[in-house]
Inverse folding.
């Protein structure tokens, strides 16, 4: 692996590649991603805009969010290090008839190739699988045009997120395969803000993504102690 790809955990990539054929099964282990997709899509559209925007989806997986953004009129590039994930994402374009430029790359490598080119960058449910999230955020800042928007989604590191996202979702309710998440890699909003600031990004908004156990559905709202979305802007 070249220097520029050192911020990649091969075991994490393999974990996602092993389940790649199930990305688009709304009832399978990617069900939570399917369920949160409309919520995060509306958040991105509202905070950053999508129509005719040049958008980069970092850690795009099988392309659930990339395709949804393309459907809303964005010109989307999706990057991931997983070959199988990208294979599934490319195949799915044949079904949807949408256009997305999928590439096997890390954010750091693409930043060397395409600096300052994107209006909007999304990086969702990915930072908690990377050895050095600050380095990914720094690369995202370099990939953005000045004034460009970054929308991130991840998990906070709190006792409640351990209970809900690991014990609840993985072991009790089996919404996700056990071992999907590692608590130590969860990211506190204060850590996110500090990394963003160091990268020249200014944090504009934090919004919680809540799972309602009774209705078995997600909604956005205040309270960022488990899943949350963050919106930042690249300073000029
Ligand atoms: N963003 C997608 C997929 C989330 S799963 C969605 O929310 O629908 C996390 C994805 O990040 C996996 O596809 C995994 O292969 C990818 N990933 C993990 N580390 C990465 C890295 N360093 N560079 C690029 N992709 C990475």
């Amino acid at each position: 692996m070249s220097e520029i790809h050192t911020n990649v955990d091969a075991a994490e990539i393999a974990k996602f590649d092993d389940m790649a054929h199930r990305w688009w099964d709304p009832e399978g282990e990617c069900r939570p991603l399917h369920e949160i997709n409309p919520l995060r899509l509306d958040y991105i559209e509202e905070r950053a805009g999508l129509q005719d925007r040049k958008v980069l989806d970092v850690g795009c997986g099988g392309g659930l969010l990339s395709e949804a953004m393309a459907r809303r009129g964005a010109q989307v590039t999706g990057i991931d290090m997983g070959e199988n994930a990208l294979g599934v994402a490319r195949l799915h374009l044949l079904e949807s008839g949408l256009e997305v430029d999928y590439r096997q790359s890390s954010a750091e490598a693409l930043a060397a190739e395409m600096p300052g080119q994107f209006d909007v960058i999304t990086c969702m449910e990915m930072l908690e699988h990377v050895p050095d999230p600050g380095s990914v955020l720094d690369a995202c800042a370099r990939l953005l045009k000045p004034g460009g928007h970054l929308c991130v989604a991840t998990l906070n590191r709190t006792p409640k997120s351990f209970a809900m996202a690991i014990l609840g979702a993985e072991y009790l309710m089996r919404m996700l395969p056990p071992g999907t998440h590692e608590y130590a890699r969860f990211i506190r909003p204060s850590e996110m803000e500090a990394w963003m600031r160091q990268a020249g990004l200014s944090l504009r908004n934090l919004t919680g993504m809540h799972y309602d156990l009774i209705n078995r559905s997600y909604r956005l709202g205040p309270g960022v102690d488990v899943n949350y979305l963050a919106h930042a802007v690249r300073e000029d």
